[in-house]
Every structure is written in C-alpha cells, then in structure tokens.
Specification:
With 341 residues, the protein is mostly beta strands. It is built from three helices and 25 strands. The strands form five sheets. The protein has a seven-stranded antiparallel beta sheet with strand order 1-2-15-4-11-12-13, with no helix packed on it. A six-stranded antiparallel beta sheet has the order 3-14-5-8-9-10. A five-stranded antiparallel beta sheet has the order 19-18-17-16-20, with no helix packed on it. The longest helix is centred in the N-terminal third of the chain and has 13 residues.
Length: 341
C-alpha cells in the first residue's frame, strides 16, 4: 500500500501544470499559463472559465511577463551589470508583480472580483495597489462555469468586467495605465482548486462600455454600427449583396455589412426549439478561428459536411475550418473532469 501511494504521488508530481484536452486547457497546479495576444490599446478579452472546488482565479492582462531589474552595479571588471529581482519569500499578492511584470491582475472569487495594479519602484521592488470601485459582486456559487469579458482602454485607463453578459463593475486607473505588455495569463490561486479555460477571444474594441444588448427590445431588431455610437432599430428584413435592409419607423435603410458590429433580434420573434428536430441526432462543431454550430448531419466526406440547421437551413461546410466535432453534449471522453472516463 505505501508503495502504491508513493507511485500515485510521483504521478501527480509529473503532471504538467496545464493540459490541453477537448478544446480547453485544464490546470493541475498554481503555475500560470500565458500567451502573447498582440492586443491593441483598446481590447476586448472574452473567455469561459469553469472550476472545481473553491474558485480563486487570477487573470493577468496587458502583462509584460518580465522580471524587474535592480539598478546597475559595477561588476569585478568595472562594467555595470543588471540583475533580475527574485520574488521574495512571503510576497503574498505582491508576487503578482514578480510573476506577471507590469500588468493588471483580475482575481475572481465565487461572490466578488477585484483588480490589482502591478508596478515597480525605481529600485525594482513591487509597488502594487488594488483599484477601487463601487461594487464588483458576483453570483457564481452554484454555477461552476461562467463566461467573462474584460474591456480595457489604455487611452483612458478604464477597465470593465462582464459576467455571463451582465455588467459587473468598472475600474478607472487615475495613476495612468500601467499595463504596457500584451500577454494574457491564467492561474489558480488555490492549490486544491482546478480551472478549465476555453473559448478565449481577444479582439479590438471601440471603447463603448455598453452594446446592442443594452438596447434589446421585445418587438424591434437593434443594429449597432462599428463606430460604437450609432444604432438603428426596426425590422431586419434581408441581407443581399453585402448589405442589410432595415425597415424603420420613418424610413428604410441599407447598411453595408462591414459597418455592422452587432445585431440583437427582437425577443418576441425568437422561437423555441422544434421538438421533432430536437429528437434527432445532432452534432456540435467548434469552428476556427471562433464559432460554434449545432446541426443535424445529413452526409459527410473526408473534407465536406452537409447538414441541416433549424434557422440557417441546409448547409455545406468545409471541414478544414472545424477544430472539434462533438456527438454528445453531456459528459464525454473529451472532458478531463468526467470521473466516468
């Protein structure tokens, strides 16, 4: 028995800090995973976060991922040398700065969120502050999964957080935006907790805090233009030759599709799922670079799929743009947290 326990401990120690499986990253430790997003000054960062055990996640954004350096000192040969500063013992949350460099770090708990500003003194020591805000309450106790979105503006020092489409809070850094990098990083702050990160999207943002969703109505379609300020409401009649036809109360308008950022259809016109169609075998496709379609397969070859979608009708898809095809929407072998596999 002791030998088996020792083998189990060795297996756990040999596990990589993060594992990619089934279109998602799973954490096995408190070490972060990071990627250079090449993000612009105004950016939207969206991701789906799932967790096991107590939620305590850290998300660093606009991070440099560089260790600070001490002021140069003369070496034995008389030349000045710079040395990186190691993370001191007992650094606590100040360790964020030594890990992520100049950055902002969003910490998410089950019932609230907060943001740390990570900077350094002239001597290279961590200089951190928690950005103040009125309220950043969350209601994630029973969820186990949520979609988050950060909207960051270097130009104004503004950061906004949304959870499952709901506005949570906004922070303003009056000291000046300190996040000079473009790295995005995720980490679990609880040794017993595990995170799953998926559907990460980083795009340019027009600087508007709200969206077409804030104008969603029962009986009118709402179209938000790419300038972030103009909206049209009415009936979205058609899309032809790259132009949307919108029938408004006082006039009909045609809008080029490249000028449309977001469309919210009237709630009253949304229909429920057809029971007969829902009873048939369906598959879910995760598309590249981003997208998801659920449809009924009709016929397939090695590179093409013909399928029926309840809203889009019959489709023929090029499978080169499909990153993952799921035949079961419940627990599956692709879910590393499914104890049955």
């Amino acid at each position: 028995e002791p030998a088996k326990e020792k083998e189990k401990e060795e297996d756990e120690e040999s596990e990589p800090p993060w594992v990619f499986s089934g279109g998602a990253y799973y954490s096995n430790s408190q070490l972060p995973i990071a990627i250079d997003t090449k993000s612009p000054d105004q950016v939207r960062i969206r991701f789906t976060l799932a967790w096991r055990n107590r939620l305590n996640a850290a998300i660093a954004f606009h991070a440099t991922m560089k260790q600070p350096e001490t002021p140069p000192k003369e070496g034995e040969d008389g030349e000045k040398e710079k040395q990186p500063i190691a993370k001191p013992d007992g650094a606590g949350t100040k360790g964020f700065a030594y890990t992520y460099g100049h950055s902002y770090v969003l910490t998410i708990y089950s019932n609230y969120a907060q943001i740390y500003r990570c900077d350094f003194t002239d001597e290279g020591k961590a200089d951190m502050d928690r950005l103040s805000n009125s309220s950043a309450n969350l209601r994630l106790e029973e969820a186990g999964q949520a979609e988050f979105e950060l909207r960051c503006d270097r130009l104004t020092g503004t950061i906004a957080l949304f959870a499952d489409g709901r506005f949570v809070s906004q922070w303003n850094d009056r000291q000046g935006y300190v996040g000079t990098g473009s790295y995005l990083a995720f980490a679990s702050q609880n040794s017993a907790a595990r995170l799953r990160i998926s559907d990460v999207v980083v795009t340019a943002w027009n600087g508007m805090i709200d969206s077409a969703q804030s104008m969603e109505t029962e009986d009118r379609d709402v179209i938000l233009l790419t300038n972030g300020t103009d909206r049209f409401s009415g009936e979205l009649a058609s899309l032809q030759d790259g132009k949307f036809l919108i029938k408004g109360t006082y006039a009909d308008m045609t809008v080029p599709h490249e000028e449309v950022q977001e469309i919210r259809l009237a709630k009253a016109m949304q229909t429920g799922e057809d029971e007969e169609e829902a009873s048939r075998q369906r598959i879910r496709l995760l598309l590249q670079p981003y997208g998801r379609l659920t449809m009924r397969p009709v016929e397939a070859s090695s590179d093409r799929l013909r399928a029926h979608h309840p809203a889009l009708g019959d489709l023929t898809l090029d499978l080169r743009y499909v990153g993952l095809m799921e035949f079961s929407f419940g627990p599956s072998v692709l879910d590393s947290w499914d104890d049955d596999y």
